[in-house]
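Reopening this ticket.

The earlier resolution said the output was attached, but the attachment link was broken on my side. Pasting everything inline this time so it's all in one place.
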Amino acid sequence: MISIPTIKRFPSYLRLLRQYKEDGESWISATRLAGDLGLTAIQVRKDMAGTGVEGKPKVGFRIDELIKAITENLGWNNTTDAIIIGSGHLGVALSRYDGFSTYGLQIVAAFDQDQNKVGLPIGRTFVRPMSELKEYIKTFDIHIAVITVPGEAAQEVADLLVDAGIRAIWNFAPKDLRLPEDIVLQRTDLATSFAVLSAKCRRRMEGDDGSHPDDGDEEHLD
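Inline output:
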């Protein structure tokens, strides 16, 4: 059982480990990882314990083993096909982001209700009409959808996706969605992220170190 804060740190570990490997290194210590990420060595060892990889005294961890273990724990070792609903500026930007492939995510189709956008290229695919949504999800066995539509349309779109068989939704729309309990939902709220950034900046400028007991949500994944 790995905590949510640890899961959130895994991508940073992975980025550094890959860089170390590119530089020709084979082993890395918890102390060095901690220093490069602004963490404590104790925290790093605790996080690494969740991967199942054991370090060696005075040597550290084998980099290849950590990369493999973290990638598997994140589920990034197998490419997952996903679709985007909404081909506005954000939808286009996400569809063009090549970095998703590094995380095991591949945007295979985009859908929009605006007929003027249907057929236009978006990333490595093109915009399809909403009328094809349900059949596409069924035919290609799609489980993940990304919502980038305006807030007022998000709930309707989410309901359509659930009815079509989608199991997980990544919601970028400024709207809290009401979904069945068996649907996995992740919301990325840009306003909330900026609020946290602004608050931390203000604390730092006022002399606070920015760390508070309630800043981390110690939820756990089964």
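Reporter confirms the inline version is readable. The domain at 80-191 is CATH 3.40.50.720 (Rossmann fold). DSSP finds eight helices and eleven strands in the chain.
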